Amino acid sequence: MSARRVREWPLAAGLSVPLFFVLAPFVWLLLSSLKSEMEIAVAAPFSMPDRLLFENYLDAWNIGGFGELVVNSLVNVALVVGLTLAVCAPAGYAFAKMQVPGGEAIFYVVLLGLTVPIQAIVIPLYKVLSALGLLNTLAGISLAQVGNGIPFGIFMMRSFFRGIPDELIEAAKIDGAGHATILLRILLPVAKPAILALVVISALSTWNDFFLPLVVLISPESQTLPLGLVRFASTYSTEHRLVFSGTVVSFLPVVVLYMLTQRRFTEGLTQGALKG
Amino acid sequence: MLKFMTAARAAASGLLAAAMVLFLAEAAAAQTLRMWGPEQLNDPEIAKLWNEIKADFEKRNPGVTVQYMQPTGTISNGAVQAAIQSDAGPDVLLTNSGIGRVGVVANAKLVQPLGAAYEKRGWKDRLHPWLYAELKRQFDGEIYEFPDGLDVIGLWYHKDVMTQKGWQVPQTYAQLLALFDEARKAGLQPLVVGPRNNASGGHLFGNLMQVTAGRDKVGEVVAGKRPWTDPAIVASAQRVIDLVERGALAKDMVALDLDAAARLFFTKRAAFMFAGPWFTSNARRAGYDLDKAGFMPLPVDPGQGESLPTGGVGWSWMVSAKSKQTDLALRWIDYIVSQEVMVKRATHASNWMVFPQALPGLQPSTPILKTIFDSANKGVGYNPSVYIPGNVVEAYLQAITGLVGGQVNAKDAMAGIQVQAERAARP
Amino acid sequence: MRTTTGTKADAVSSILFIGPALLIYGLFTLFPALDTLRLSATDATGLNSQANFVGLANFGALAADATVGRVLLQTAQWLVLHVVLAGGAGLAFAVAIASLARTHVFFRTAFFLPHVVSLAVVGVIWAKIYDPYFGLLNGALDAFGLGMLKLGWLSDPALVIFSVNVASSWQGFGIYMLLFVAGLQNIDNSLYEAAEIDGAGVWQRFRHVTIPGLREVMTFVVSLALINGLKGFATIWVMTQGGPFYRSELLTTYIVKLAFQFQEQGRAAALCVVLCALAMAITVAFNRWRESLR
Question: Mind telling me how many Å the CA of B335 is from chain A's nearest CA?
């Protein structure tokens, strides 16, 4: 660690000031989510709610149909995360440790995908999903999101596997292990932090994705959380108390996920993204 | 005991209904009518009304289930087109309309022509005659929508503030300007607008265009028959700049959206705001006492005829070209446009709509709505936002923020809109 | 059979290893991207309309469109701001919390929190923070007696990109911070000790040990920030719709307007091609430059 000669508490106290500003929007959001529509409409930003209206959360849940939305979002995230890992880990391994014919060229074609914003491909993508009968399905949106996430996933897994000494793999080969065995038995256990990092990154971006679901998920029963929040806004008026409480509901699960995995997650970033 | 009785009766009727459904399912195959809309279904009042409508329609059409799809967007942002194209799309749609938007889906052949239905099903007689004539004009005689509601946009003010300060309702534009000065001296924002990400800026400018250039010229401009650089239109743009320089509008209002602007109005920090009948819904949410609200058309310059609100078709019904049950969709519209349903909706507490047909003897739920409905009876002018193509709307709304924010002069602002209007006119 | 030089066996199994990823990537990203390239040479309008080949006409029209020039310039501003604000905040906080022991994890976790909020929601929240009459920011400035610092955050044309970028960077800096934290953990502590023995102060240690030690991670963060910056969309879309008077219009927002509001699919696709080409050029150029410094 760098120069741990600075005294802990003065620095921590000093850092609390920027932290306060960084977290202030959260405090404001939490407070607002407990206000009545009238208080939000007229009150000054710093005022405390008259009464803490926890029923905003119930209303957001019931009126917004959040039960179904949460289930859909969870299925969506599970599909994306599972599939991303299943295809990116072997591909990353192959690019890092195997003789792939034309490997470098293919790798750059994959990296190209990093630079393509979703807005640039949304219409052709819609047509592809339509042709495959995947519009308005969680499978369809998930496949599309995996497709978009693959460049980063492969890049990360490749970097991680490149950091693993060749000797380890050679030794396993001498013991008669094939590539599949090497990947599953030897490398994946070592790769846990990198995998966690990939899990968190792809889960985060899927959970919060708005643009693609907006175009692909048409009917209410197939929609995900971010679209649910739109239901509280209409042409000329928005029910803010529900938008705010719905927003809190929508990010609590990710906060929990992050808190649970954050130690390993940081490690994974170190090894995944930076080495290689 | 009573509770038990109710429960028992509910259960019995539930069973009966189930039995009936089973029985009728033999006769008529079960059908689901998917409807895009309505908006604000998260409002309990509105949900109650629409669930009654749904239940009634289902009762009259055994075997049919109506399913509401909460809109994720409009034609302007592509959500409607994406929905229609998918196999899970709606049969019938209720969405923001106006010729610009309807043109997009009509040209892409995403919605069905309804001209025949107007003749055969008597829809023609369910509209104000002037409205039918306007619709007939728009797509060379074919019609792709049935208007659900009209927008009627004018100036909202606080009656109580006016009385308290001893102010008179202005009869001319000059009087209004004088009142703006008074309001400013009294520490109020004279006029508020919220153009940041919606049509509120258009509400302001459309009215200014009408009082400056006159209703007919505005009609020609939005139809592409007169350029936006017409001196009368440039003069109306100059009026926005003058309002800012006078202190009637503030430059930083460019950062407000409709909600933020409405907040200034509802807290009585602002004296006037341009809005439509839908503003009653915002007012209810904000706890604003609607009995204190006043509404008037922006007064015209002398010699420009009568002062009218602006507006146009705000929302319309359309039938998806992908629908496999067109007849059912048409039957739904038959039902919706019937006098019975119109009156039911118009008298409902949640209502803020101005309906497309005359509803004699109608008692609106609030006095302010009566004022607005009455002002619409004389006809409404053009709210350009709903009459011009998408790219022109964009240039139009950006130009208005530029005018309010002092970023562009009147002539250049209008020239910018004209560029887009010419681009849209090209085949 | 399985030998270390089993190139042929490698080739076969590598196809199995890479195949699924390539299939999904090809179908749902690469093919649509190529289709966009094709559309850029047509006069396509709506989703299902007939399109005719028009060659490079769309690119010509873009070159003649005054808005495009402005949009390119503003996208560049946005990009630089994102790298400086989000990347800078990430670096600053990472360095600060790296020297903490007991509270390190607390700060690392807390500073990352904004990153879990979706950008669309960030837009909604920050638009309210910037509200000139009821907003948190101007209200706070008033409360601290700093009323003269109150600005038209979203209405001042010179300020609007900066303001929205702050919102977007607030959401974005967390991941960069974690990357820097990770990078700092890899710096050999003995380097700091040696520097200290040589009498180096805090700044000199930062300048001569920390910065060179972060070389790799910095390259990665800047590349990532450049790409993310170029893709900036949601906060602008929610907060300003490109206004006031086009002063916050970016490439991505203009593309969406062209495609959906203007019904000019061909021209939108052409601008997409420009955007992707820029993204590639910037990434490649940046990495070349980094390499040349070695």
Answer: 24
> How close, in Å, is residue A61 to chain C by CA atoms?
18
Residues of chain B in contact with residue A41, where contact means CB-CB under 8 angstroms, are: 262-263, 266, 285-287
Prediction pTM value:
0.88
Query: So what's the pLDDT on residue B118?
Result: 94
Using the Cβ of B86 and the Cβ atoms of chain A, whether some distance falls under 8 Å is answered with yes
**Is there a contact between B196 and C242 if contact means CB atoms under 8 Å apart?**
no
Please confirm whether the linkage preceding B38 is cis (ω < 30° from 0). yes
Chains near B (3 or more Cβ pairs under 8 Å): A, C
User: Could you tell me if residue B2 is inside a domain?
Assistant: no
Cβ distance of C245 and B401 shorter than 8 Å: yes
- Count contacts between A and B (CB, < 8 Å): 89
Consecutive 10-residue averages of pLDDT for chain B (427 residues):
43 48 50 90 85 95 92 82 85 89 87 94 88 86 92 95 94 94 96 90 96 92 94 97 96 92 93 94 89 94 83 91 94 92 85 80 81 82 89 93 96 96 81
Nearest residue in chain B measured CA to CA from C249: B398
Residue A244: which of A68, A45, A98 has the closest Cα?
A45
The reply to whether residue C261 touches residue B393, judged by beta carbons under 8 angstroms, is: yes
- With H, G, I as helix, E, B as strand and everything else as coil, classify residue B324: coil
Residue B4 lies in a domain: no
pLDDT for B300 equals 85
Question: In chain A, which ranges are continuous DSSP H helix?
Answer: 8-32, 37-42, 55-63, 66-97, 103-112, 118-131, 138-162, 166-174, 179-181, 188-190, 192-208, 211-216, 225-230, 240-269
Q: What is the pLDDT of residue C8?
A: 65
Domains in chain C, please, with CATH? 66-293 (1.10.3720.10)
Phi-psi region of C112 (alpha: psi -120 to 50; beta: other; left: phi over 0): alpha
Residues B101, B169, single domain; the answer is no
Residue-level length of chain B: 427
Contacts of B401 in chain C (CB under 8 A): 243-245
Tell me how close the Cα of C202 comes to any Cα of chain B, in angstroms. 43
Encoded tokens for C111: 């500073």
Backbone angles phi, psi at A171, to 5 degrees: -60, -40
Structure tokens at B127: 């509209």
- CATH code, B112: 3.40.190.10
Question: Which ipTM score applies to this complex?
Answer: 0.89
In a domain, B121, yes or no: yes
Sequence-distant (≥ 6) Cβ neighbours of residue B33 within 8 angstroms: B64, B65, B66, B67, B91, B92, B325, B328, B329, B332
Q: What is the total count of domains within chain B?
A: 2
- Residue contact C45–B108, C-beta within 8 A: yes
Sequence ranges of the domains in chain A? 2-53, 56-275
Whether B394 sits inside 8 A of C247 (CB atoms) is no
Continuous H helices in A98-191: 103-112, 118-131, 138-162, 166-174, 179-181, 188-190
Which of C46, C154, C242 comes nearest B255 by C-beta?
A: C154
* CB of C48 less than 8 A from some CB of B: yes
Compute and round to an integer the Cα radius of gyration of chain C.
Answer: 24
Distance to chain A for C158, nearest Cα, Å: 24
Q: How far is CA A73 from CA A78, A86, B339, C204, in A?
A: 8, 20, 43, 49
Q: Hey, of A6, A100, A106, A115, which one would you mutate to test binding to chain C, going by the most C CBs within 10 A of its CB?
A: A115
Residue A3, both tokens: 């120069």
What residue in B sits closest to C49 (Cα-Cα)?
A: B108
Chains that touch C (3 or more CB pairs under 8 A): A, B
Range of B115's domain? 25-150+313-373
Cα angle at C220 between C214 and C223, to 5 degrees? 135
Q: Identify the CATH homologous superfamily for domain A56-275.
A: MetI-like (1.10.3720.10)
Residue C166 CB: number of other CB atoms within 10 A?
A: 18
